[in-house]
TrEMBL record:
<dbReference type="GO" id="GO:0005886">
    <property type="term" value="C:plasma membrane"/>
</dbReference>
<keyword id="KW-0808">Transferase</keyword>
<keyword id="KW-1133">Transmembrane helix</keyword>
<keyword id="KW-0812">Transmembrane</keyword>
<comment type="pathway">
    <text>Protein modification; lipoprotein biosynthesis (N-acyl transfer).</text>
</comment>
<dbReference type="Pfam" id="PF00795">
    <property type="entry name" value="CN_hydrolase"/>
</dbReference>
<dbReference type="GO" id="GO:0016410">
    <property type="term" value="F:N-acyltransferase activity"/>
</dbReference>
<feature type="transmembrane region" description="Helical">
    <location>
        <begin position="55"/>
        <end position="72"/>
    </location>
</feature>
<keyword id="KW-0449">Lipoprotein</keyword>
<keyword id="KW-0472">Membrane</keyword>
<dbReference type="InterPro" id="IPR003010">
    <property type="entry name" value="C-N_Hydrolase"/>
</dbReference>
<dbReference type="GO" id="GO:0042158">
    <property type="term" value="P:lipoprotein biosynthetic process"/>
</dbReference>
<dbReference type="InterPro" id="IPR045378">
    <property type="entry name" value="LNT_N"/>
</dbReference>
<feature type="transmembrane region" description="Helical">
    <location>
        <begin position="221"/>
        <end position="244"/>
    </location>
</feature>
<feature type="transmembrane region" description="Helical">
    <location>
        <begin position="173"/>
        <end position="200"/>
    </location>
</feature>
<feature type="region of interest" description="Disordered">
    <location>
        <begin position="1"/>
        <end position="28"/>
    </location>
</feature>
<dbReference type="InterPro" id="IPR036526">
    <property type="entry name" value="C-N_Hydrolase_sf"/>
</dbReference>
Amino acid sequence: MPAGAGEPAVGTLSRPAPPTTQTVRPAAPSRWPWRTLLAAAGGLVLVLAFPGYDLVALAVVGPAALALAVHGQRVRSGLWLGLVFGLAFFVPLLSWTGIYVGSFPWLALAGWEAVHLALLGGATALTSRLRFWPVWTAALWVADEALRGRLVLGGFPWGRLGFSQTEGPLLALAAYGGVPLVSFAVALTGALLAAAGLALSRALRAWREPGTAALQGPAASLRVVGGSVVLLLAVPLAGALAWLPLAGPSLTAGGPTSTVAVIQGDVPRAGLDFNAQRRAVLDNHVQRTVELAEAVAAGEEQQPDVVVWPENSSDIDPYTNVDAARQIDRAADAIDAPILVGAVVEGPGEYVSNTAIVWDPEDGPGDTYVKRHPVPLAEYVPARSFFRFFSDKVDLVRRDFIAGDEVGVLDVGGVALGDLICFEVVYDGLVDDVVDGGAGMIVVQTNNATFGRTDESAQQLAMSRLRAVEFGRTVLVAATSGISAVVAPDGSIVRSSELFTPDVFVEAIAQRSASTVAQRVGAAPEWALTAVGAGALVAALVLRRRAAR
């Protein structure tokens, strides 16, 4: 893209012009419609990198487009362009949130998420005149995702750049710095692509117009192009080399092996009333388990050590409902193995809890895990009267779920399972806690029936694939209606189900104890990269103030 007159060369600091006999005001940064169109196109292309489209390589185009759109612009222009980019990205990506509750909650959530990218656009514009600006741009992406994953109401880090990389060379970086490092690599590759494009544009312009002021010569610009391309290629090369010391796709290597069964019982209907026939949902999971027991007796399947049911497999509290408890007992007795049951449990007080219960065939209910991060406006409603002003759909949440306070590491038949319930898999700290707590494998109990046949299930499964690589653990996804899956430690999918189809998986899986680099360093890469981005902002503000003087 041609640079405006007076713009500094790529990778340099802007400096005040030398004094002249006549004061000439620099031209205002351009706000041509092409910048807005470029930002919108970048957001739409980024969507294509996520599940539903799975064009993983296109992820770098999003950050590249935003970097080009805001380069050399004022902060307020960057805010606008970042907002356009964010809306173009989040509105289609999160369309599943409005499938049964209407457009307002969907568009409100997408708009709120886009506000964070507006801040990113403004920050990127401010730092775009610094030396080595592609590095600061990538660090700011990590900082923005860190902010978005924590504020407000615990944050909502869906759509992080790293979660798009379910395959390809950048996926391996998750084992060394978690999702933040993968996001940084995607953003850095995109920013370097933008830098190469800007430098090439300047080189061509200098070639055509050798007398134009404030332009580097063609040779200097071409050197910037070459350097950017070399660094651009170095990022995926580093990812490819990072695969070498990682374990292969074997489920049984790295520790003592246990046989685990995953049950997808299915539901009578999709939508918010998926569990209107709560007993039917429970019966479906009981029946699939009894059928598995018959297959084991016939020698067609291995005897499992552990059986995993999904979230909401019993929305009837088995502690207070004798019939529900009897049915779970029946399933556990038939399969002769403990079952991890996903249940809705009454109490404490006026609340309910989203609870995983270890149900033993001999002793009945034992250890439990209560979901630590209930979803705001879906499992509980803060400031109900305020949000009711915008949508009466908040009253579909009749009783608020209470948050648990203990890490979800459960001993199920001698197997140390790290349990996460539904959206908890998106939060770095919750996953890190269960692995640090001694989990030899990770279980994600989820219910996606409320999102119908949208891309939500596939997007959530992508997160499990990143977590498998990040922690070197097999991840088991148990869903009421799909997608259930067995994900190997290298992120590959070994088994997966179809949506709204009953299914059963039985696999021998190693309980791993080795630690990845990502587990050992924890959140340090995210904080370090965030500090780098913040430092670049401070430097840009200081230089801007000096120039203003």
